[in-house]
Design goal:
Catalytic activity: dTTP + H2O = dTMP + diphosphate + H(+); UTP + H2O = UMP + diphosphate + H(+)
Number of strands: 7
CATH topology: Maf protein
Radius of gyration: 17 Å
Order of helices and strands: EHEHEEHEEHEHH
GO molecular function: hydrolase activity
Largest sheet: 7 strands, mixed
Distance between the termini: 19 Å
Number of helices: 6
Family: Belongs to the Maf family. YhdE subfamily.
Oligomer: single chain
Cofactor: a divalent metal cation
Strand content: 25-35%
CATH architecture: Alpha-Beta Complex
Shape: elongated
Enzyme class: hydrolase
CATH class: Alpha Beta
Length: 192
């Protein structure tokens, strides 16, 4: 029996790069089109899990395919922090995160051609140092955190501003590799 083909339900180059770290290249990439608005009263964990599964379900899956989708949500307490759509939002987010711990919740989901769903969720605690206005201005000027949940990218310049990480570093970037590898193996995807 031939191994199933992997479909990555994400247009994120970071997720492709992370998969490459474990020797996996998607056979097909499809961008899911879903409403990512939080539901009233929805917890950050439930939100991330719902979005990961919704993204996987939004991509057509042939009988010989496995769809992989993920969502990374940044949460401050029960508050879901949005992506930084512009510099004003990014400054506000970085000010909120300055000197505090927050959670990065990374949910992943696979659905195979038979409809079998497999899911994992990983929570990572991240703490920024207390950021000065100059540090926030310099980071915003770099353009690095625009479009990112919480307004930062841990795999870039922001890493030098983070004093503590407990959990999955790759999960903060966008795909917890240990759990992703286990899900793909269970779904029959060959691993490098």
């Amino acid at each position: 029996m031939t191994a199933p083909r992997l479909v990555l339900a994400s247009s994120s180059p970071r997720r492709r790069d992370l998969l490459a770290r474990i020797g996996v290249m998607p056979d097909r990439i499809a961008s899911p089109d879903i409403d990512e608005s939080p539901l009233k009263g929805e917890s950050p964990r439930a939100y991330a899990e719902r979005l990961a599964e919704a993204k996987a379900r939004a991509v057509p899956c042939a009988a010989d395919e496995v769809v992989l989708a993920g969502d990374t949500t940044v949460a401050l307490g029960r508050r879901i922090l949005p992506p930084a759509d512009d510099e004003t939002v990014q400054r506000r987010l970085l000010s909120l995160l300055s000197g505090r711990r927050h959670r990065c919740i990374s949910a992943i989901c696979t659905i195979d051609g038979t409809g079998k769903v497999r899911k994992r969720t990983v929570e990572t605690v991240v703490a920024f140092k207390r950021l000065s206005e100059d540090e926030i201005d310099a980071y915003v000027a770099s353009g690095e955190g625009l479009g990112k949940a919480g307004g930062y990218a841990i795999q870039g310049r922001a890493e030098a501003l983070i004093r503590f990480v407990s959990g999955s570093h790759s999960g903060v970037i966008g795909l917890p590799l240990f759990e992703t590898r286990a899900l793909l193996k269970a779904a029959g995807i060959p691993l490098g």
